[in-house]
Write a structure and sequence with these properties.
Mean pLDDT: 97
CATH class: Mainly Beta
Distance between the termini: 17 Å
Structural class: mainly beta
Strand order of the largest sheet: 1-2-3-4-5-6-7-8
CATH topology: Lipocalin
CATH architecture: Beta Barrel
Number of strands: 8
Strand content: over 45%
CATH superfamily: Avidin-like
Helix content: under 10%
Number of domains: 1
Length: about 110
């Protein structure tokens, strides 16, 4: 479902670091999903997830931002299939560093 898909951030709460300039390149093998991401405030990031019930993603993420800080967090993503077959991921996340705050974001599959 997620293999070789590219996503862009559609929205994010103010305490998040990903933005419309951030691109995520997803891969999948069986029930394991991983991605690399960069753009905007993110120099380089990685995530890894288990696919759980309903094709939701239980993930952990880490990235280095433009300030050189290593940031980490947890995220739970719920997929929504659009009329044209693209995927939107509705995400609830929490930093596991810094201020440990929580937020919500939406990423949308883009077709190159």
């Amino acid at each position: 479902m997620y293999n070789n898909k590219i996503f862009a951030t559609k929205s994010n709460t103010e305490n998040g670091e990903v933005s419309a300039e951030t691109r995520f390149h997803y891969f999948q093998k069986e029930n394991i999903v991983w991605a690399e991401y960069s753009g905007g405030q993110i120099i380089k990031g990685f995530l890894i997830a288990n696919v759980v019930e309903g094709n939701c993603l239980d993930m952990r993420y880490e990235h280095i931002n433009i300030n050189g800080e290593l940031m980490t967090g947890v995220c739970y993503s719920t997929p929504e299939i659009l009329f044209d077959g693209r995927i939107i991921l509705n995400e609830k996340w929490k930093w596991t560093c810094g201020d440990f705050s929580e937020g919500e974001s939406v990423v949308e599959e883009i077709v190159a």
